[in-house]
């Protein structure tokens, strides 16, 4: 099990969140993760080869034009700085679409659930602080076979608080989600990401979505690994 801060003696615990306040806090983590995609998108566009080439071309053209007009060095510096500022502000505005996605999504429906579908919200607490969550949807008990030999669990959201990322906690959350899904729906239950999961919306052109495509591939691979680990653990207990 990953530990956010080995030097801290606070306990890391996983649980299914049932209290309304806890579920709302988990939803806020998801909303934040959607808005934070702006930072990833901005960084990718800023350093995209096509965008950088266009910026260099504009700077070069401005330099030649101002040189022909006899402008001094200070005027060139001011002009070039203005061009770079416009470049960055344009990218910032374009990437802010992710904030609008976070604001305009009907998040309340994520808590209310759907007919025949139950939303299980898993959380990881570091002491009393909720630092990671998974939104898992499963068929309600009265809508599936009593044999519990089939079913499908769907992950609609999977996120960790920003400062606790890259410490293995995301993998722990996926393993916990697989365990809960299998216990709830049976060992043959399939677990997969929803096509419309929280971070599935892309606000920019495909050429700028490389980081998100890579993230999705890594998430799918991590989930497959979590399922295999659960199956291996079950096999060893037989």
Topology of this protein?
Layout (H helix, E strand, L loop, with lengths): L11 E6 L2 H16 L1 H10 L2 H20 L4 H23 L1 H8 L3 H5 L4 E10 L2 E11 L12 E9 L8 H17 L4 E4 L16 H28 L1
Parallel strand pairs: 4-5
Antiparallel strand pairs: 1-2, 2-3, 3-4
Helix pairs in contact: 1-5, 2-4, 3-4, 7-8
Keywords:
about 240 residues, alpha+beta, Aminopeptidase, 2 domains, 8 helices, 5 strands, elongated, membrane, N-acetyltransferase domain-containing protein
Q: Can you describe this structure?
A:
This protein has about 240 residues and is α+β, with helices and mostly antiparallel strands. It has two domains: about 10-30 and about 105-235, Aminopeptidase; about 40-100, no CATH class. The chain is built from eight helices and five strands; from the N terminus they run E-H-H-H-H-H-H-E-E-E-H-E-H. The chain has a five-stranded mixed β-sheet with strand order 1-2-3-4-5, sandwiched between helices. Helix 7 (about 170-185) links the parallel strand 4 (about 150-160) and strand 5 (about 190-195). The longest helix has 28 residues, at about 210-235. The protein is elongated and about 80 Å long. The model has no long low-confidence stretch (mean pLDDT about 90). It comes from Cylindrodendrum hubeiense. GO terms for molecular function: acyltransferase activity, transferring groups other than amino-acyl groups. This is N-acetyltransferase domain-containing protein. Pfam families: Acetyltransf_1. Keywords: Membrane, Transmembrane, Transmembrane helix.
Distance between the termini: 23 Å
Q: Could you say which structural class the secondary elements and strand pairing correspond to?
A: alpha+beta
Q: What's the CATH H-level superfamily name of the largest domain? A: Gcn5-related N-acetyltransferase (GNAT)
| Overall average residue pLDDT | 88
What is the fold-level CATH name, i.e. the topology of the largest domain?
A: Aminopeptidase
Q: Strand share of the residues?
A: 15-25%
User: What spatial order of strands do you see in the largest sheet?
Assistant: 1-2-3-4-5
Order of helices and strands: EHHHHHHEEEHEH
Number of domains: 2
Number of helices: 8
State the total count of DSSP E strands. Answer: 5
Helix content: 40-55%
User: Could you give a short account of the major beta sheet?
Assistant: 5 strands, mixed
